[in-house]
Amino acid sequence: MTDKIRAYIDEVEQFSTDKIEDIENFRIKFLGKKGILNDFFAEFKNVPNEQKKDFGKAVNELKESAQAKVESLKSSLETKLEDKGVYGDLTRPAEPIDIGARHPISIVKNQIINIFSNIGFNVSEGPEIENDWHNFTALNLPEYHPARDMQDTFFIQTNPEDILLRTHTSSVQVRYMEENKAPIRTISPGRVFRNEDISARSHCIFHQVEGLYIDKNVSFKDLKQTLIYFTTELFGKSKIRLRPSYFPFTEPSAEVDIYWGLQTETDYRITKGTGWLEIMGCGMVDPNVLKNCNIDPKEYTGFAFGMGIERIAMLLYQIGDIRMFYENDLRFLEQFKSSL
Hints:
Elements: H1 2-14, H2 20-31, H3 36-43, H4 49-88, H5 104-117, E1 122-123, E2 129-131, H6 132-135, E3 155-157, E4 163-165, H7 170-179, E5 184-193, E6 205-215, H8 220-235, E7 240-247, E8 250-259, H9 265-270, E9 276-285, H10 287-292, E10 301-308, H11 309-317, H12 330-333
Parallel strand pairs: 1-5
Antiparallel strand pairs: 2-4, 3-4, 5-6, 6-10, 7-8, 8-9, 9-10
Helix pairs in contact: 1-4, 2-4, 5-11
């Protein structure tokens, strides 16, 4: 009798299937009410006393082996079905993914780059740690020039060569003119630094985009048409005005205003009731700057312009405090998930 039980144990150990019906039939055969194990338990009373110990031990071993086999096969089959369901059924709802968002400064910077790229401007970049020549002297700001006070500078080293954090991306334009021959058509986006008090309207770190176009017979008319194209593309507004101003590296120089309008209460507030908003500075490149960069001012002329990206972003998104760009508040940044 014990040999018969051992034969069933071998059968159990060798059994394998990947069908749920076969597993159920196997369970009924060995563990069901009319199964093999019940027959052995019923036969127990007829086993001679000296064999009952071995008989009982063999029956329990068969029972444990059959139960373990059923659980093992069911578990393996459920895992396969789950994997198939996860990777095979493309109609299943996807797990929610927390989509990131571009920073509003990056969004506006990319918009500006795309607009000028459409009319032939390439992108040039340079170091944030600059020397005096590229940041000041080459731009018609020699040492002790009073206009240097317009930009309160972070100096890193004063001797033997003045090393500083750039105060504008015009330094990139100087490097580009030194390394490339005219004609030149480039924009220079980047981060700049000035030693200013932090408030709702100003910060010691901010971003600029400056543009430069140098070629033969470039005039102020070309500058104006370029700016009209830009304001129309970015703001949807083509009405601009140019107010005389002063920049050491351009002559003549101008501040650029766009007509924002007075249709809403917000328009009245941000334009102080005038309808006009200042967005950038511009002008014709000073001949001394061209000379400093080894470009002949008798043969070439050019124009330059520059704007603060934060200023543009605050206008586009109606943000009232520049500090919000730097606080990394997710409640603020998540509002830009739908932007490019």
